[in-house]
Write a structure and sequence with these properties.
Blueprint lengths: L7 E8 L11 E7 L3 E8 L4 E10 L5 H13 L11 E6 L4 E5 L8 H6 L9 E7 L5 E8 H10 L4 E6 H13 L7 E6 L2 E8 L2 E9 L4 H13 L8 E6 L6 H9 L2 E4 L7 E2 L12 H5 L5
Parallel strand pairs: 2-5, 4-15, 5-9, 10-13, 13-14
Antiparallel strand pairs: 1-4, 2-3, 3-4, 6-8, 7-8, 10-11, 11-12
């Protein structure tokens, strides 16, 4: 890792030679903000070409204000994040302050009530937003720090800005992926300290949940809990895997003991990638890429 600041570390950076600071008006800036990490990507909206990808990890965070300061330190030291005049800016939030609501039941004025079913939040210091899935009848209600929300809006006054939750990007991406992979039973996304599990039924979302992981054995515990809860046959299940893991990782070897039909997922095919992306494994950053699908 390259130590670029006391508050964060740059883990990965790739940049296509076609990226031009003079063409920001054609680009979509994508930023995903987690508690312990942050990712950045730029997409040329004219030809859907992925031009940059960056991954940062934060030092341990002790407070909401410290987290906000860490994010600002990344922006302050960056060569284009503070620039304006992007065609659009899409912000994804990685946290556990979210709730999924069937679209037929959703009432915008009751967003806080829907969110309170699943988590605790402070409406005085947190902004509550919602996102309607394009490919399913799911609305995701989520919260983020109000200061962070207002600061981001102030950075890009000339751009169209949209906020989504990480779970929405995964749902959109996997529904898109499932159109050409009808035999898949379950999808997993291994994030830093999180496990996301999704299943598709017909053309819609059947199940989504994320689980905090404190010890390695919990991966199998939660996978098997979902398999049994949905009455899937583990011997016939086909499982696709994305995330921060290697193809010879302990995760894969352990999962294979229980589910034999397991494979790694591909990059989304609605984007184009230059040769510089060859150094990034195809199953990495699936959530980041699919933020581009969120409208």
């Amino acid at each position: 890792m390259e130590n670029v600041a006391n508050t964060f570390k740059l883990v990965k950076r790739v940049k296509d030679e076609k990226f031009s600071i003079d063409k920001l008006h054609n680009y979509t800036l994508i930023i995903q903000i987690g508690i312990r990490d942050l990712q950045v990507s730029v997409i040329d909206s004219q030809d859907n070409r992925c031009l940059t990808l960056e991954d940062y990890v934060f030092a341990p965070v002790k407070s909401v204000q410290e987290h906000f300061d860490y994010i600002k330190s990344v922006f302050d030291s960056h060569h284009f994040l503070m620039a304006g005049f992007w065609k659009s800016v899409k912000i994804s939030v990685k946290n556990q302050k979210f709730s999924h609501v069937p679209a037929s039941f959703f009432i915008p004025e009751s967003s806080q009530d829907f969110l309170s079913i699943n988590c605790r939040f402070d409406p005085k210091t947190e902004k509550v937003l919602y996102y309607k899935s394009i490919k399913s009848e799911v609305i995701t209600v989520f919260a983020l720090d109000l200061n962070l929300y207002e600061w981001i809006n102030s950075l890009y006054p000339n751009s169209s800005i949209g906020f989504v939750h990480q779970s929405s990007a995964l749902i959109e991406g996997i529904l898109d992926y499932s159109k050409s992979h009808k035999n898949i039973t379950m999808y997993l996304y291994i994030d830093r300290f999180k496990l996301h599990i999704l299943t598709i039924k017909g053309n819609g979302l059947e199940y989504y949940n994320q689980f905090s992981i404190k010890q390695f054995s919990e991966y199998i515990k939660y996978i098997m809990l979902v398999v049994k809860g949905l009455q899937h046959d583990q011997n016939k299940s086909n499982l696709v895997l994305w995330g921060y893991i290697g193809k010879q990782s302990p995760h894969y070897n352990e999962f294979y003991k229980y589910i034999k039909n397991i494979s790694f997922g591909d990059r989304p095919d609605f984007l184009r990638y230059g040769y510089v992306f060859d150094e990034i494994q195809d199953h990495h950053f699936f959530d980041l890429y699919n933020i581009y699908l969120c409208d």
